[in-house]
Structure formats: structure tokens, C-alpha cells
Amino acid sequence: MGNKLVRKRQIVDEKYTRPQGLYPLGRDVDHKKLRKLILESKLAPCYIGDEEGGLDLEECPICFL
Known about the structure:
Blueprint: H1 31-39
């Protein structure tokens, strides 16, 4: 009784609140709204994509993942 579920809010670096170049910067994106939604944890941050996987990863022979 009286217990609350409290989530710690993660602090997002400012550079991850803007698109990182994977998609072209167009006028159809409201950057203020995007930043606000990311800081409110309603959208995931815009992390930089990785072109190739790690060299130490081994492919599963059963499912090929």
C-alpha cells in the first residue's frame, strides 16, 4: 500500500534530439516537436546508425541471425 512505480528519466544528449543524416532533412519535420517528444521519452533518440556489424559476431547456423 502506498507503493509507486517511478521511472528514472534518462538524460538524452542534445545531439541525439536531431536527425543524424540517415534521412534527408526536410521541411516535413518539426524539430521543436521532435526534440520535445524525445526529451519526454515518447520517442526514441536519433542515434547514429552502424553500417556494419561487429567483426566478432558469429552467425547462428540454425536461424542465420
